[in-house]
Amino acid sequence: MPEQLAETVDPANWSCPAPLRDQGVVVMGHGGGGALSAELMEQVFTPAYGNATLAGLADSAVLELGGARLAFSTDSYVVRPLFFPGGCLGDLAVNGTVNDLAMSGAEPAYLSAAFVLEEGVGLTVVERIARAMGAAAEAAGVTIATGDTKVVESGHGDGVYVTTAGVGLVPDGVDIRPQRARPGDAVIVSGPIGLHGVAIMSVREGLEFGVEVASDTAPLAGLVAAMLAVTPDIHVLRDPTRGGLAASLNEIARASGTGVRLRERAIPVPDAVANACGFLGLDPLYVANEGRLVAFVPPAEAEGVLAAMRAHPQGTGATLIGECVADHPGMVVVATGLGGTRVVDLPLGEQLPRIC
Amino acid sequence: MKYIDEFNDPDLARRLLDEIRATATRPWALMEVCGGQTHSIIRHGIDQLLPENVELIHGPGCPVCVTPLDVIDQALEIASRPDVIFCSFGDMLRVPGTDRDLFRVKGEGGDVRVVYSPLDALELARRNPDREVVFFAIGFETTAPANAMAVHQARRLGLSNFSLLVSHVRVPPAIEAIMTSPECRVQGFLAAGHVCSVMGTGEYPGLAERFGVPMVVTGFEPLDILEGIRRAVRQLERGEHRVENAYPRAVREEGNPAAVRMIEEVFEVTDRNWRGIGRIPLSGWRLADAFRAYDAEHRFDVGGIRTEEPAECRSGEVLQGLIKPTECAAFGTTCTPRTPLGATMVSSEGACAAYYLYRRMNAPTPQADRAAREEMNPVA
Fold first, then answer.
1. CA-based nearest residue to B315, from B300, B303, B327
2. Which end of chain A has fewer CB atoms at under 10 Å, N or C?
């Protein structure tokens, strides 16, 4: 009866659950490239290392050394499965660090490769990964100059982990970092988004999305060089890996104190990615890429840079997706296809498939 | 998927919006019950495009948010056991219990796995005969048939190491609870299309009649939602209160009889607590006696876990449209997206977070919005 119901349901006591931020232990979200990753940096690593170079929080540090400007970066690669459509752990380990260097405008030159191997892993697996790294290094024009190997007991690792570090030279007159975004800048993405994340999900979870989706893993230093040939005055470059385009754009907006406004209909989302995300309740803007970059370019240079990108094999799908604005500093806003707007926030941790 | 693109067509959307604007002669408040529709409305900015006199109230239709605290605590207790593989839909992992969540349990060594279907959990049970596999069976009528099917299959295959922790909820009693609340402002409902695709529309005419509210069965794409709103407003303006199906490509009046039979065989109706709302009589399902062996609550003896909910925030009132987020004392002070007290502040899709973000933003200003609209829909 309604009268009885009104007694049992007291709207004044309605409340909702909120996620726990202070876990006290490491959770998967700390590696998700979102707010939890940022908090780990801000609360643990930055205070412990405390220096001005680290405070830039770019994909790579730019260092003055012996009269040269050196870009320096490191990244660890853990992926399951080790082999996936379009590539493997070895490709990621080379291309990922090459791209981190390229996002400073550097010409990547040398990499290191450190392996953590789990006891019991087939040597053929290690060999396949090493060969893939060699081939990827050759394609990217870098040399793997030093390395290390450690073995952990069976059950204490996930087969193979690889850490690469890299150095490259930054050309004179190039100053690319997130703090340089300016209102009016054109925001350009180099091609279709979300392919790597969906490729990994499809094999990891055994999900079929009608067509095989291959990872977009690729080295981007050549594409960056082609862009810099048009103008050295590129303001920001970022490769939107973990946390996707949304995380990269939020980081740039916060670092520069500007806003970002995107046009949803302009963002290139392949059908397979849109379908997979629709099925899982994920947003393509948060899905990882491994061979894409997002660029902030002065408006007068946008057309020339776009043309140069489209003429390069890694930039054939380059698209203008929005602009940097003075409004809503630190925030990314999308103008939806229907003419409304929505805020695209920094993800908390990893994106989770929604039940509804 | 060109088929779906057609449900995003901006020209058709503008025509529907014009029609809604022309039809609505006075203020109307509609509730979309389903969290999936809320998500779509925010994602596409539909709420900002509606005329000012048509208000959408976001209902309590997020099964993740309404799963009660004591059930989450039971899940955490079971998932912590070394002999258990605990399987769940992904978005439950971040929902907090009293002092931790499933991510924390996983971080401490618990075997917690994200699955996409209870049948995946069943397969894990088949492949791990020496482990107990538990699936967290939450959700509305939409997820109940597959969960019922999993238990049915477990019995058929003779799997004794598979069980469900059940916290299923039903939509019609929730609508009844909302409508009998003394301060209810809801004048019409967008009924959840996916729920109706399973259950049909038979439970709704009685509610529409009793409370004098139109109920329009609505889909999830932008044009589906606008069409649902258009029909609900049209009914309200005409003084009608019927059940109307604006989602015929997915919903038949009789629903999916095979799925309903499966639910009725495996589950029985029970009272349920809704997190943040309270106890709603006959608003949920539990495993029927014949399937009690597959009930994780009994198998792991966690029925004694009863947790009192601390009333921390007023998002429940926000959900009912009783207050705007800005009327909550915690809003923007102790409760922000960075330090949320309630789910409505957790993600940018929550009503409170949306208000917080837009209130802080100088833009989109009406002019910028207008410019963006003109840019996308050039006036010929």
1. B327
2. N
Q: What is the DSSP letter of A308?
A: H
Does B361 score more than 60 pLDDT? no
Nearest CA of chain B to the CA of A243: how many Å? Answer: 15
Pairing of β A332-335 and β A341-344: antiparallel
Using CA atoms, how far apart are residues A231 and A11, in angstroms rounded to an integer? 60
The SS3 call for residue B185 is coil
Distance spanning both ends of chain A, measured CA to CA: 30
If one counts every other C-beta atom within 10 angstroms of the C-beta of residue A265, the result is 14
Residue identified by tokens 């069943």 is B122
Sign of CA dihedral A347, A353, B2, B5: negative
Q: What is the C-alpha separation between B165 and B71, in angstroms, rounded? A: 8
pLDDT reading at B341 higher than 80: no
In the predicted structure, residue A4 carries a pLDDT above the cut 70: no
Write the residue in B114, B140, B279 that is nearest to A8 by C-beta: B279
| CA separation for the pair B343, B312 (Å, rounded) | 11
Q: Which of A7, A15, A249 to mutate to test the interface with B (most CBs of B within 10 A)?
A: A15
Position of tokens 């349990």?
B105
Cα of first residue to Cα of last residue in chain B, in angstroms, is 28
Q: Residue A29 has what pLDDT?
A: 81
Strand partners, A65: A68
Nearest to A162, CA basis, from A92, A237, A57: A92
Q: How far is A49 from chain B (nearest CA, A)?
A: 25
Q: Which of B92, B101, B113, B376 is the best mutation test for A, with the most CBs of A within 10 A?
A: B376
| Ramachandran sector of residue B294 (left: φ over 0; alpha: ψ -120 to 50; beta: rest) | alpha
Count of residues making up chain A = 356
Structure confidence at residue A25 (pLDDT):
82
Contact B102, B92 (CB under 8 A): yes
The pLDDT value recorded for residue B275 is 75
B256-292 burial: b if 16+ Cβ within 10 Å, else e:
beebbebbeebbebeebbbbbbbebbebbbbbbeebe
Cβ atoms A287, A244 nearer than 8 A: yes
Q: What pLDDT was estimated at residue B348? A: 46
Q: Which of B314, B317, B377 sits opposite A339 (nearest CB)?
A: B377
- From CA A222, how far away is CA A106, in angstroms rounded? 10
Residues of B in contact with A280 (CB under 8 A): 116
CB contact under 8 A, B177 and A9: yes
Q: Once rounded to an integer, what is the mean pLDDT over residues B134-146?
A: 95
Tell me the residue type at B140. Answer: F
Nearest Cα residue to B121 out of B95, B148, B86? B86
**Residue B335 DSSP symbol:** B
**What 8-state DSSP symbol labels residue A215?**
P
Exposed / middle / buried, residue B238 (Cβ in 10 Å: 0-12, 13-18, 19+) = exposed
Closest C-alpha among B153, B158, B154, B243 to residue B200: B243
**DSSP E strand stretches across B11-117:** 28-34, 54-61, 84-88, 111-114
In angstroms, rounded to a whole number, what is the distance separating the alpha carbons of residues B179 and B173? 10
At A155-190, the pLDDT tens digits run 998 899 999 999 999 999 999 999 999 999 999 999
Furthest-apart CA atoms within chain B: distance in Å: 69
**Whole-prediction pTM value?**
0.81
- For range B334-343, the mean pLDDT: 66
CB contact under 8 A, A28 and B106: yes
Task: Determine, for residues B43 and A342 on separate chains, whether the beta-carbon distance falls below 8 Å.
Answer: yes
